Amino acid sequence: MALTIGEDGIPICPAEELAQAPLTKIDDLRRISPVVRTDANRVMALRADDVARLSHDPQLPQLPGAHFAKALGIPEGRCRAFLENFMLMSNGADHHHKRGAFAKTFSHPAIRAKRGLVRVVARQIVADLPRGEPFDFLALCASRLPAEVIAKMLGLPVQSSSWFAGQVYSFSRCLMVPYAIDRHDEIEGSAEALYRFVSAELDDRREKARDDLLSSLVQDETARALESEDLIYQVMGIILAGSDTTRSGFNLLVGRLLADRTLWEAVGEDRALIPAAIDEALRIEPPVGSLPRLVTAPVALDSHLVAPGQLLALSTLSAMRDEARLDAAQCFNLQRTDHIRPHLVFGGGPHRCLGEMLARIELEEGLAALLDDASGIELIEAPRMMGISGIRRSTPLIARIS
User: Fold this and answer.
1) I want to staple 48 with a disulfide (CB 3.0 to 4.6 A). Which of 88, 127, 319, 343 is the partner?
2) Measured between alpha carbons, how far is 86 from 103 in angstroms, rounded to an integer?
3) Ramachandran area for residue 92 (φ above 0: left; ψ -120 to 50: alpha; else beta)
4) Coiled coil where (predicted)?
């Protein structure tokens, strides 16, 4: 592969070119170099050992929202304000303070206790799917499940879940690289709509508390210490995280299993394989393609040195396809034992995904509901995951239940 080499010795492959290329391109790059420059101020770490190590490095902070927005060219406005205030894009005491308002609710024991709720939602959604005719699984199942679960948890009207899921699908483009500046007005409009929606729901709970998470937040001492606008941004982020990435993950999980009927039948015969199927689907086609970090001190990647001030994307997409760590890394293997642990798609260190347990339970219960009540589902058109960095998105999966 012929590559341009920068003055610092790092190979160059523009983000736009990489985003349009097949995944074999990133595999080829990884074999040549541990790092690639995707634009003037941004490089991407490609190898599993480096990504796993650096995702937990306390000297490599999460890329602050202000830096992220500036690097992507996102104009001033609601979307940029969200990035500058959301817990995921903050560090240190600020991150700890914001995340702390949600830590108890999203603790693993608390979320495990919600499995029954998720199961009921999943089974109802599967029961609602059309029979005997083609349908869009992404729209009618994969999107509904996480949106309706997070709505029930937060205490939002379930009938509004399809509306806010649609807003989230547009709004989440602010976390995709490169930024779709040509769609900024649409993204900004969705950010503003979600802001007003969450603000109204929180005001409603302040006037009259209910038995839901939003009511708990407006009464919780830690959450009440947040400025009102700050709390709105955190809830917006929870809705985004709870609606968007799981829908893509579920869509690709089902698509992968249906594309190889032996895999679908194996999981159907042995439900103990469901977690393994989820791990493999999230590994091969992760809905989060990279983890953003800010280089504050020189970072060594083999013979290459990434200078302070650079934006470093830790490529989960590349790392989890790394044949140096995994046998037959591009193969979907339900019996795989050479896992990279913890699973890189959920991040690392203090920013590891707050909703990891919820996402896993949603995927487990969603797949189990399909296997129980729609085992005859057939693939008509397979989905594809698009993008290589930040939040990725899926094309529709077209299926039919006989």
Assistant:
1) 319
2) 15
3) left
4) none
In 3D, which of 331, 335, 348 has the Cα closest to residue 283? 331
Q: In terms of C-beta density within 10 A (0-12 exposed, 13-18 middle, 19 or more buried), how is residue 233 classed?
A: buried
Q: Is the peptide bond before 75 cis (omega within 30 degrees of 0)?
A: no
Instruction: Tell me which of 196-200, 218-222, 246-250, 370-374 is least confident.
Output: 218-222
Give the DSSP per-residue string, 159-208. Answer: GGHHHHHHHHHHHGGGGBSS--GGGHHHHHHHHHHHHHHHHHHHHHHHHS
**Contact assessment for residue 172 and residue 240, using Cβ atoms and an 8 Å cutoff:** yes
> pLDDT tens for residues 235-252?
999 988 878 889 999 999
SS3 94: helix
Cα gap 83→87, rounded to integer Å? 9
Dihedral through CA 336, CA 341, CA 342, CA 344, nearest 10? -80
Mean pLDDT of all residues belonging to the chain: 93
- Cα–Cα distance for residue pair 345/319, rounded to 1 Å: 10
In the numeric block, which tokens belong to residue 370? 């399909």
Peptide bond between residue 342 and the one before it cis (omega within 30 degrees of 0): yes
pTM strictly above 0.85: yes
Contact present, 36 and 306 (Cβ < 8 Å): no
Q: Is 1 a residue whose pLDDT tops 90?
A: no
**Angle ∠(250,256,262) on CA atoms, nearest 5:** 125
Query: Taking the mean position of all CA atoms in its chain, how far away is CA 25?
Result: 22
Domains and CATH numbers, the chain: 4-340+347-401 (1.10.630.10)
Rg of the chain over Cα atoms, rounded to whole angstroms, equals 21
